[in-house]
Amino acid sequence: MDIFKALEEYDYEQLVFMQDKETGLKAVTCIHDTTLGPGLGGTRYWTYENEEDAVIDALRLAKGMTYKNAASGLPIGGAKTVILKDPENQINREALFRAFGRFVEGLNGRYITAADVGTGETEMDHVYQETNYVAGTGLKPGTSGNPSPSTAHGVYVGMKAAVKKAFGTDSLNGRTILLEGAGKVGLTVAKKALKEGARVIATDIFDGPQQRAKEIGCEIVEPDELFSIQADIYAPCALGASINDESLKKMEKAGIKVIAGAANNQLAENRHGDKLDEMGIVYAPDYILNAGGVIQVADEFNGGYNAERARKSVDNIYNQIEKVFNIADRDGIPTYLAADKLAEERIAAIRKTKSVYVRDGKSILNR
Ligand code: NAD
Q: Rounded to whole angstroms, how far apart are CA atoms 57 and 1?
């Protein structure tokens, strides 16, 4: 892999390799862009086929965080860490994550970490023993806890904004929603939509989530039956790439007019976003819609988490989605590209202010 060429491609600022033989730590932190503030992004603890795959994942995820954080209006940049998990190697988890915490401390605030796939509150508690540049630890005063309810609330308000674009009113009353994935986020979105008078048809690959969805009032179908029902809204809340050639054909038949869900990377390829535009389906871009979790986590740095303030900020996802639609209309582009533009325009505007000299710049870290 030609590392500097890869860094140049999307103008990555910094790629940090961390190794500690004693604890078995092998980690890569990628800081993509800190124009808006310190780079914030979770730490993924994952087994990779090879080291190159780990680096590519760190690069891809860090850039994704820059766009998500920028488009959410947060004063933070984008970064991400992957720690290479060796299933053969017996590690001491506390030692490994404390060693990692010391490296994070060494970055002196350019990077703030949090939980991601394979890590949770316990790991962040270990990291917190060594650095304050961590969110989502249960030990820190002003911590914010599980981000899923905030993510779900953002998906719900963003869905309403998308429904308004498609139908002229943002009410979900009487709308039929096809919910894919009745997990932590999907189930909460369903509850909110049901409360507003929507009909929710839910599916999941496991019985437990199906059962829980049924208990709150959803109708249940098997995953391959989801699009056999005529509906207004498709809410992908399972895994990525669910908008693809095959599902688009089914959505057309099902009469879907809006796509709004929590899953990351919903478009299998960008051309599927173009296709949605041609089909006249209102697509609420995933990373704007599912930013509630990171908005909550970032609020911890405003002198400790404040639920009311964070909720207001999550409510703002409604406006952010409207901004995306306005950019799409203004420039005649699909909404997934308009989302990128929203992020890029904000970063460009703030970058210009950086030409004004200050000796020690202020950031979210010294509020
Ligand atoms: P979760 O694991 O609690 O729920 C996902 C559910 O989807 C599970 O019940 C799983 O069985 C189901 N599922 C998996 N494949 C499926 C398929 N093919 N068809 C139907 N159901 C399927 O996860 P979550 O926290 O609710 O997150 C949902 C999505 O939102 C994920 O893609 C996640 O990356 C994304 N997301 C979550 C958050 C958060 O705060 N939790 C934040 C941003 C993005």
A: 13
